[in-house]
């Protein structure tokens, strides 16, 4: 009986811990441009290996990458060899396929190591839009001094000249919405910030939540 009670207590404790951990990873929606500007490292890379590191209660996954191109962070770490992330997805760990895809990976540098997670921007390279690729190469850094303000409820108004109103959340799309996929918020010569689509100037005569 004592053994059974001990087992029951351990089981319930582990179940409660699991429920707590599963709900632990919550990320605020972030526009790709902000993800770019707020990251220490932004690279395009192939994942060529992985290893579970025995540190912490759940371990850390170390991915070995072959860096194809660096978009941000050259002054910090010109060549990235390893990407670290939590081994558990419930702790915001990222799962990357080995020798299968090229990835766009953003991350922060801590004690000489690059860390990424579910709250960072990572994506299979072939799933990025043309506008996002152009943003990585040139446009996003032009808007790092701008502020992208999420709009959850209408009406939404810019409160300063350096703000762009991000309305993808009105349709519950967030970082996978139309603005996130096709627009960058860049600073104009006049000093204010506005959305830029690239192939055509935005139509300011039309008020549309998905086409600023």
UniProtKB/TrEMBL annotation:
One of its GO terms (cellular component) is extracellular matrix. One of its GO terms (biological process) is negative regulation of membrane protein ectodomain proteolysis. Zn(2+) binds at residue 25. Disulfide bonds join 25-92, 27-119, 37-144, 146-193, 151-156, 164-185. InterPro entries: Netrin_domain, TIMP, TIMP-like_OB-fold, TIMP_C, TIMP_CS. The keyword Transcription does not apply. One of its GO terms (molecular function) is metalloendopeptidase inhibitor activity. Residues 1-16 form the signal peptide. Belongs to the protease inhibitor I35 (TIMP) family. This is Metalloproteinase inhibitor 3. It comes from Aramus guarauna (Limpkin). The gene is Timp3.
